[in-house]
Amino acid sequence: MASHRRPKQPSRARVTVLTTAAAAAVALSSQAANAAPSEKPSKDEVKAKVDKLYEEAEQATEKLNGATEKQEKLQKEISTIQDNVARGQEELNGLRDSIGLAAAAQYRTGSIDSSVQLFLSSDPDDYLDKASTMDQLSGQQVEALKKIQEKQRELAQDRSEASEKLKDLASTRTELGKKKKEVQSKLAAAQKLLNTLTAAEKAALAAEDARASRSATERVDLGDAPAGSGRAMAAFQAAQSQIGKPYVYGATGTASYDCSGLTSWAYAQAGVGIPRTSQAQANAGTRIYSQSQLKVGDLVIFYGDLHHVGLYAGNGQVLHAPRTGTVVRYESINNMPFQFGVRI
User: What DSSP string describes 114-138?
Assistant: First the structure.
């Protein structure tokens, strides 16, 4: 039989809570509707954030350059070791073959003896340790066995070294991939920010960059700063010939450069090999901690982590490849946190 009890009415306290919650919801929705929309970042704010991302991208770029250089070095070392192993194996096979021929000749004459049997052993060390049979071997035969032993040891060492370097190469390639993604991520984030600007704001920023690059690529007054060595001056003049070339991360010329790509290329033109990255270049010569002691052609290292490098141009100027979106140009040494100079 169906129940006909009246539904229980909500208590006065519960009605009060519901009413209060409803009122609060209405108030919040009203405030949200009347609130001013969040303000869009200004052009200058966007530029500041983009510049910061570009700096972070350059930090990652120098680490990427280091990983690339290490990978290339490891590949060359592994190739050399593998060539040595191949040649060593050929020598070992030749030694074994010569012993085999000697054994065959004795077998044909029916005079194969225990000394030749020792030669045919796959483990010469074991037999050489047996002093009782050593007197059966001629001096020439003992020397041949020793050569085989030495070659076997060399091959084992080379193969072990190659194996370790192959592991190092694999981890370096992994690091290389991570750093490349990090650079690309920073640049993509910067581009996303730039895309929030209006066409007029983008044009204004482009005009600012163009003016900065144009004024900084023109011949500036370099004053009467002392010239560096002949090779330092040759490197500086080589870098001057690249003024106006665009910055591209990982680039070493001659269509484009990153900061350490420009300096390493410039010194190479002067016949001087220096490391690829700014951090390594910081240790490539004598450090000069006073700006007043810098000479034209000295390397100039910037930022606490040493991730940027240029060439001293005189009169408080550096010649460098600044960052993405710029070109090789002159700039005041005071525009970046100076650490020290390096005289190659």
Answer: HHHHHHT-S-HHHHHT-HHHHTTS-
Q: How many CA atoms lie within 13 A of 65 on its CB side?
A: 27
C-alpha span between 238 and 243 (Å, rounded): 10
With beta carbons less than 8 A apart as the criterion, state whether 165 and 77 touch. yes
- Cα(329)–Cα(71) distance, rounded to whole angstroms? 31
Mean confidence (pLDDT) of the chain:
79
- The tokens of 214 are what? 């144009």
Q: What is the pTM of this model?
A: 0.64
With contact defined as beta carbons under 8 Å apart, do 320 and 216 qualify?
no
For the range 90-93, what are the long-range contacts, defined as Cβ-Cβ under 8 Å and sequence gap of 24 or more? 91/151, 92/148, 92/151, 92/152, 92/155
Q: Which of the residues 245, 320, 323, 329 is marked catalytic?
A: 320
Any catalytic annotation for residue 259? Answer: yes
Using only C-alpha atoms, the chain has a radius of gyration, in whole angstroms, of 36
* Residue 320 annotated to the active site: yes
Element (H, E) at 88: helix 43-108
Q: Which of 259, 282, 288, 328 is catalytic?
A: 259
* Span 9-50, pLDDT tens digits: 554 444 444 444 444 444 444 444 444 445 778 888 888 898
